[in-house]
Specification:
Radius of gyration: 14 Å
Order of helices and strands: EEHEEE
Helix content: under 10%
Distance between the termini: 54 Å
Low-confidence stretches: none
Strand order of the largest sheet: 2-1-3
């Protein structure tokens, strides 16, 4: 058994987390749900993945006054 770790962002781009498993034995559920595989972990789930720049970014926070 050869486990690997993959990281994912939600379809919206927001970082979701990781999946660890053996893809030859266990189906990776996140790809089937439309999640985006990203090459690295983000600092937190507040970050979003930008496929154009292939990097995470922290969106501007809009404050209501």
């Amino acid at each position: 058994m050869s486990n690997i770790v993959r990281y994912y962002a939600k379809p919206s781009g927001q970082f979701y987390g990781g999946w660890e498993g053996d893809p030859d034995v266990v189906n990776d559920p996140f790809l089937a749900m439309g999640y985006i595989q990203v090459p690295q972990i983000a600092p937190s789930t507040d970050w979003y993945w930008d496929p154009a720049t292939e990097a995470f970014y922290l969106p501007d926070v809009v404050s209501e006054m």
